[in-house]
Design brief:
Length: about 260
């Protein structure tokens, strides 16, 4: 499994791109950035987008991507997530008010966007990769994921989340997890804001890792707000923990 980090920041500003991971060239995890990170010839290779939640920094790349596919002709994309996430998209995005209903264009039987509802905490197969959504704690319905290659080694992704329980309980029991991507959006001095907005700080993440006995796992921190990047980096690196690393844009990870 080859994972290219197209974007991993908590905002799309300047050189920073928001959340979007490309797996094996054909599966995206979230859609914060697509056409501004990939060449045009690579776009038709993408067959599915696995959505964690509907905040715009995780969906904004979908607009230009689907429009480009429509202009290229003959290409289709599958949006995959838990049912409530897809419901928000159909009710509030593809409603012909905010955006054209590409789930019915050019026709309902041959739409550019097809929706696929997958059940919580059960593995679903997407072209050789199994994905298992886990309900997170955020301000909108959000799922994190366990992703595995052919039911072998894999990784976990919290998506946007504040302190939560079920994800970490699952993490304790999942075998052959190479690393966990975890949200840290705000520095410790803004812990109140982090909790209100459903995110974590460096201290919250480290306390969680220790509470659940996950110090033997590798953690990649993602979704850092660019304006706080230096401050958060200092707070993450100061304790000298070998289990915590910072995810980098354009980085390539392999499983």
């Amino acid at each position: 499994m080859n994972i290219k980090i197209l974007g991993c920041s908590g905002n799309h500003v300047g050189r920073y791109r928001s959340t979007c991971f490309l797996i094996d060239g054909s599966l995206l995890v979230d859609a914060g950035t697509i056409t501004d990170s990939l060449r045009r010839k690579d776009l038709p290779r993408i067959k599915r987008i696995l959505i964690t939640h509907t905040h715009m920094d995780h969906l904004k790349g979908l607009f230009s991507f689907v429009d480009e596919l429509a202009m290229m002709g003959g290409h289709r994309i599958e949006l995959v997530s838990a049912g409530p996430v897809l419901d928000i998209i159909t009710n509030n995005l593809t409603n012909n008010l905010i955006w054209p209903d590409f789930t019915a264009i050019p026709s309902a039987m041959d739409a550019i966007i097809k929706l696929r509802d997958i059940p919580l905490e059960k593995p679903s197969l997407l072209d050789g990769i199994t994905v298992k959504p886990i309900l997170m704690t955020h301000t909108v319905y959000t799922v994190g994921y366990v992703l595995r290659r052919n039911n072998g080694d894999g990784f976990m992704f919290t998506a946007d989340t504040g302190p939560t329980e079920r994800f970490w309980e699952v993490a304790c029991n999942e075998k052959n997890i190479r690393f966990i991507m975890a949200d840290v959006s705000f520095p410790d001095r803004l812990s109140d804001l982090a909790l209100i907005s459903g995110h974590m700080t460096p201290s919250i993440l480290m306390e969680t890792i220790d509470r659940y006995g996950l110090g033997d796992r590798i953690f990649y921190v993602t979704h850092i707000k660019p304006i706080f990047a230096r401050e958060i980096t200092r707070e993450l690196l100061r304790p000298g923990r070998s289990d915590i690393r910072i995810l980098r844009q354009a980085e390539m990870l392999e499983i």
